[in-house]
């Protein structure tokens, strides 16, 4: 049984969020250039720079993920994942495509350069093969708003475009934001920037059904931005980042609404899991860690400057190194290290290394 499910149904967690300050100095690499962020309390560059609290205290890794001279991330309006060897995949908002790094930040290769705006990525293994489920906002030539399943070398295995069964009257109504495989091989695709419906396809890409849709009531979403499969409970569930309703919601894989996981968030974008914990990137300058009961146990990079929240026009040099302005993509690896992509006009990638306690 779900830990918050009782005889009267799913109970919403309303525990209040609190804030943790962060002030330090770090040399941050963005767009191939080193930029210095200074705070009032910083005295030397040698100080260990940290964020979070308790067992979720993290040190920032300087200079991680440097790009070749002249290359820019271009917004990092995307996602982060890894493969079985621990290599890190970061999608960009530019012809850089998806960048593949080793865990220490060494650039290995670039893939999917024909698709310069991959918005989401979900790694899985199917029939012994490593694959990544993605959604693409922009591709060349003119392959926009489509689902792609690709190998880790970037070769394309499957494409899904807007289904006729959706009843769309215009091409701009299909504006997908996330895709994940279900336990039975079904493919779930969120039309987050469109009508917020979530579409279900079979493994071959045939349309099966849709659910959710635009609104603020139970079972509806206002920007179904991110999807993930939540395996923390007896029954696997689909977790949805209902961004503009400021909440996470659970659905079953038949499209049935289960309940709101937690509310009062700051525009949640994507979710990554580590054991019983969920890591959530929030567009309004924060990353939140939830426990199995979906109570917040830590906040990372909490930005006290509200004027910077979700501001694409920011130069990364104006963002404090220990805070986020618009945390869009997030990923936690097997060692509990966290990677975050900030949404701004040139992009910023941060690696947070969990401190031993």
From TrEMBL:
This is NHL repeat-containing protein. The keyword Signal applies. The lineage of its organism: Bacteria, Pseudomonadati, Acidobacteriota, Terriglobia, Terriglobales. The keyword Transmembrane helix does not apply. Keywords: Glycoprotein, Signal. One of its GO terms (cellular component) is extracellular region. PANTHER family: PEPTIDYL-GLYCINE ALPHA-AMIDATING MONOOXYGENASE, SMP-30_GLUCONOLACTONASE_LRE-LIKE REGION DOMAIN-CONTAINING PROTEIN. Transmembrane segments: none annotated. It comes from Edaphobacter modestus.
């Amino acid at each position: 049984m779900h830990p918050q499910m009782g005889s009267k149904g799913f109970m919403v967690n309303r525990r209040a969020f609190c804030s943790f300050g962060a002030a330090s100095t770090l040399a941050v690499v963005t767009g191939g250039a080193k930029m210095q962020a200074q705070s009032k309390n910083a005295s030397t560059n040698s100080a260990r720079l940290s964020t979070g609290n308790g067992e979720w205290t993290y040190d920032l890794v300087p200079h991680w993920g440097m790009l070749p001279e002249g290359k820019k991330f271009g917004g990092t309006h995307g996602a982060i994942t890894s493969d079985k060897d621990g290599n890190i995949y970061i999608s960009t908002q530019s012809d850089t495509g998806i960048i593949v790094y080793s865990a220490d930040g060494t650039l290995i290769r670039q893939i999917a350069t024909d698709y310069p705006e991959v918005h989401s990525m979900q790694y899985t293994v199917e029939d012994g093969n490593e694959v990544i489920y993605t959604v693409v906002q922009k591709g060349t030539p003119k392959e926009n708003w489509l689902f792609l399943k690709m190998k880790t070398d970037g070769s394309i295995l499957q494409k899904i475009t807007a289904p006729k069964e959706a009843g769309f009257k215009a091409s701009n109504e299909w504006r997908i934001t996330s895709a994940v495989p279900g336990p039975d091989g079904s493919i779930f695709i969120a039309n987050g920037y469109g009508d917020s419906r979530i579409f279900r396809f079979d493994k071959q890409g045939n349309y099966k059904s849709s659910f959710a849709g635009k609104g603020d009531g139970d079972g509806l979403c206002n920007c179904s931005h991110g999807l993930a499969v939540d395996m923390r409970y007896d029954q696997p569930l689909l977790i949805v980042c209902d961004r503009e309703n400021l909440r996470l919601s659970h659905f079953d894989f038949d499209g049935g609404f289960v309940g709101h996981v937690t509310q009062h968030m700051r525009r949640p974008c994507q979710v990554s899991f580590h054991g019983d914990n969920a890591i959530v990137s929030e567009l309004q300058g924060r990353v939140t860690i939830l426990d199995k009961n979906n109570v917040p146990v830590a906040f990372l990079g909490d930005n006290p400057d509200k004027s910077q929240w979700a501001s694409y026009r920011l130069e990364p040099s104006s963002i404090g190194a220990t805070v986020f302005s618009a945390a869009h993509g997030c990923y936690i690896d097997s060692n509990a290290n966290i990677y975050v992509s900030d949404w701004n006009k040139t992009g910023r990638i941060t690696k947070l290394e969990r401190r031993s306690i």
